[in-house]
Amino acid sequence: MEARSDLPRIWLISELYYPELTSTGYFLTAIAEGLAEAYDVSVLCGQPSYWARGIRAPVREMRNGVDVRRCRATTLDKNRLSFRITNLVTITVSILLTATLRFRRGDIVIAVTNPPLLPYVAALACRMRKGRFILLVHDVYPDIMTRLGILKRQSISARLLDRASRWLYDSAARVIVIGRDMRNLVASKLQSRPDRVLVATNWANTETISPEPRSRNQLLRGLRLNEKLVVQYWGNMGRPHCIEDIVNAAQLSASDSDIHFLLIGWGTRKGWAVAEKEARGLENLTILDPLHRDQSCDVQNACDVSINTLCRGMAGISVPSRTYNAMAAGKPLIAVCDNDSELAMVVKEEEIGWVIPPGRPDLIVAALIEAKADPERLHAMGKRARNAVETKYTFEYVAHIYRSMIESMRYE
């Protein structure tokens, strides 16, 4: 479908965009290209600075109908804090200058919350140029920092950041969140019109990820895990993700030779997990670096049960998008999280696994023993998971939400 001249121009603001296909880059690229089927869409982003760091993408290119403008900024090693801050400052200033020059009255601007300074830049540029601002919330600041103990809730810094975030929410014509628990939290911060908060979840890659026979899985074969019940954690092993419960569950089940834990990913807690595996002598725990995206289907199918974890108090703060790809592979879920989180809601509504409170690794082991004893129940859970993905968590389903939102804004 060709974009029509009477439709608004849409901008997406994101530090990460193709060829950077970390979680944020992947989802923002898909959203931009989905909207470009009906609208004139441009993107302001940076050069790859995470997994694709070192690749020099064109400063400007037309890709799949999207006008991509990569703003000049540093791309230093993000694993060094001083370099990461330098990257953040330079991309923020660069995007602000470009946005101020390029935005026009009536443009619709969608900005994601990561990194946390960019949406303020987008909101400021919209105010200066009479554009309309949409905030896409992936993480809720400063709440994630206070709940993880990085900031004290009553500190001056936390209160100032909370006031700034409330200003940001109130500046937005729409606020898009990726979970119902997040909608409730964000709506409570708005001074008016909580109906502006819309839920548009992330989605599964149903085209490349589908259930496959266990016997054909190359990863399990290479690790010699064909005969074991494998529970897999895939993705970021960061501070919000309660990796301790998985390692502790591995220790509690060490005497059961039929159960094996597989961790695949990256993050600040990965080093701790590797050290604990060695210190405790956990032969039933394997930890791997992330594999190439082309191997996604094989990776998601390299288990009998998928496990997702969020620390206590994270309901409304963060929603693990990896959930949907595990469901696409037809895998039952062990959800270690608060009972009122989006992750828990999905598992309970679709009847696809177990919801376990953080801090109870013994219940993780109990769930795995149940799974091992009843393979038919496990298969039925996996089938329901795939069915749920195909009806509720596809890109087409989510893209429809975005397009309906844009259409509704045209008549305001």
Can you describe this structure in just a few lines?
The protein is α/β, with parallel strands linked by helices and 412 residues long.
Fold blueprint:
Layout lengths: L8 E5 L9 H13 L4 E6 L14 E4 L2 E5 L10 H22 L5 E5 L5 H12 L2 E6 L5 H5 L8 H16 L2 E4 L2 H8 L9 E3 L18 H6 L5 E8 L6 H10 L6 E8 L3 H11 L4 E4 L7 H5 L4 E5 L12 H7 L4 E4 L5 H9 L2 E4 L4 H13 L1 H18 L2 H16 L2
Parallel strand pairs: 1-2, 1-5, 2-4, 5-6, 6-7, 7-8, 9-10, 9-12, 10-11, 12-13, 13-14
Antiparallel strand pairs: 3-4
Helix pairs in contact: 1-15, 2-3, 8-9, 8-13, 11-14
CATH third-tier fold name of the largest domain: Rossmann fold
The rounded distance between the terminal residues' Cα atoms is 24 Å
What are the low-pLDDT stretches, counting only 5+ consecutive residues below 50?
none
The H-level CATH homologous superfamily of the largest domain, spelled out, is Glycogen Phosphorylase B
Strand arrangement across the biggest beta sheet: 3-4-2-1-5-6-7-8
The ordered string of helix (H) and strand (E) elements is: EHEEEHEHEHHEHEHEHEHEHEHEHEHHH
Query: What is the CATH architecture descriptor of the largest domain?
Result: 3-Layer(aba) Sandwich
CATH C-level name of the largest domain: Alpha Beta
Output the structural class.
alpha/beta
Mean pLDDT: 93
Task: Summarize the amount of helix as a percent range.
Answer: 40-55%
Give me the number of helical elements: 15
Q: Provide the number of structural domains.
A: 2
β-strand percent reads 15-25%
Radius of gyration over C-alpha positions, nearest whole angstrom: 22 Å
